[in-house]
Amino acid sequence: MKYFFLHLGLFSTLVLTAQNHSHTGDEPFQYPDIEGYLTLKTDLHMHSVFSDGSVWPDIRVQEALMDGLDAIAITEHLEYQPHLADIPHPDRNRAIALAQQEAKDHDLIIIPGSEITRSAPVGHNNAIFIGDANELLQEDALQSFKTAKKQGAFVFWNHPAWYAQSPDGNPVLSDFQKKRIAQNELHGIEVINFGAYAEESLALALEYDLAILATSDVHGLIEWDYANKGLKRPLTLVFAEERSLDGMKEALFARRTVAAYNELLIGKEAFLIPLIQAMVEIRDVSYIKNTSILRLELSNNSSSDLILENQMDYTFYESSPVVHLKAGQSKIIQVKTLEVLKNLRLTFKVLSAYTAPKVHPTVVWDIRVDTP
Description:
The chain is α/β, with parallel strands linked by helices. It has nine helices and 22 strands. The N and C termini lie far apart (63 Å).
């Protein structure tokens, strides 16, 4: 398989060094830490040939390393196994074991997981941090959830707005889900799945205190499904006290997450605002000589574009009030402060981020101005 990819030219090298290579040809994902927490880059929903995916589990590991991820979960369907005639495997843990074997010499954490796959109202749900996937394969879906709870699993609802589950594209929380939440058997919800954002899912996350998640749900190659279309895979940014399985598990149960997909960032204010503040570095702050026009450079040190709208009483000189600050790039803005200030509260509404349906966060950077 590795030589096959090399021959096709999909990868310029098979050296799995996340710091130097990315299958997209860009830099690996980068997001800054926030105060008190490490920002871990995770993809918690993907498939291989051990259910309905198209690649061997080691490819999932290689893709994640090239993208600079901290952790992945390969979550094969328990009930839906279309390749059994070609790849018989009575052990539902096999894909996890192969991924762990591939990752053992690399800096990537494999989270054991599986997908409980049923028709509505149960729907599709991922259980991660599980002990044994085979025990989750129950005739009664309710027993699958109870077994996942016994194993200490974090369970989340997959693509609730998917038209095959919700024909009008509007997710509805059934009595089944409500009972699972009440009994601490359902803990998160995908607000972004395979590039599709559902603000109704975000509303449910906020109403029922579910972790806000974004996943690739990749079945083919990341290269084909995302990079070749000029897109980046969706990520769940997990704010953990330590970079470990236990650290991520604690953070997910505490709902410390932000969903990230290209320029889109979605999460609660408590984590989204400090993340955006850390993403922007402000430097070279000074007044243009003999003017009250303050010049400063904004630098985006993350992998997400930011679309910022000026919320200050002060306006900009020679630029729009809407600033598109691209990932990994810098931009000069000039603020007409009308008088020379020693301090400035740079205030933007972040149009590319949401804390609730149709609600953008307002983010403030307090700047000290060194005046001559």
